[in-house]
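Design review, sub-item: ligand-bound model
Attendees: FS, YL, KQ
YL presented the inputs for the flavin mononucleotide complex:
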Amino acid sequence: MKRVIVGITGATGTIYGVRLMEMMQADPEMEIHLIMSRSAKLTLKMEHDLELDYINGLAHEVHDPGNIGASISSGSFHSSGMVIAPCSIKTMSNIAMGNTGDLISRAADVILKERRTLVVAIRETPLHLGHIENLARLARIGAVIFPPVPAFYNRPASLQDVVDQSCMRMLDQLDIHIESAPRWGEEGGVPAVGQQISGGRGS
Ligand SMILES: Cc1cc2nc3c(=O)[nH]c(=O)nc-3n(C[C@H](O)[C@H](O)[C@H](O)COP(=O)(O)O)c2cc1C
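KQ shared the predicted structure:
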């Protein structure tokens, strides 16, 4: 089993967290632990028609963001790492400063102290110096700072192509290799958003 923790916060781009989990369905060895912040649920409603039940159904275990006693809040819970996508400035800054008052920041802090991989898909623009200083601090304590910046060399034909390419690269950071988008000089792809499990929009 490869365990991965997925955090989804209230920054715009909740689709990144959803798509990461959809892609990981391709690997039967994956065990996904999901935490969605309260703000993420609000942002999701503004951005998508996807139902929360569908998103929760992509995870093996869904954790309440307020449950700081959850399994994933302990270093004894072994995992391959954690990805927060999208990651708000608030959550990024909390992790950088060691403010671990909710489960997303606590689980992320545990990942860092245990020297595992934390991928932070920070989503804000433009950035002021305070943001940049917190990002630098987070990079120094071991996080992978991964703003989901589109690539164009693979000639994306849709928004989904753009999202898939970033998600594939985020999973690469966790040593999970899913061919959801063409790599440089290659072809590839996985089914569309909302089509991965029964009960999804496309089922
Ligand atoms: C539609 C919408 C889009 C937002 N986009 C961003 C964003 O891109 N980056 C960001 O840092 N915050 C963004 N926010 C604000 C966060 O949701 C807010 O700071 C929240 O407190 C983050 O909490 P969380 O990190 O616990 O999810 C957005 C809010 C809304 C409603």
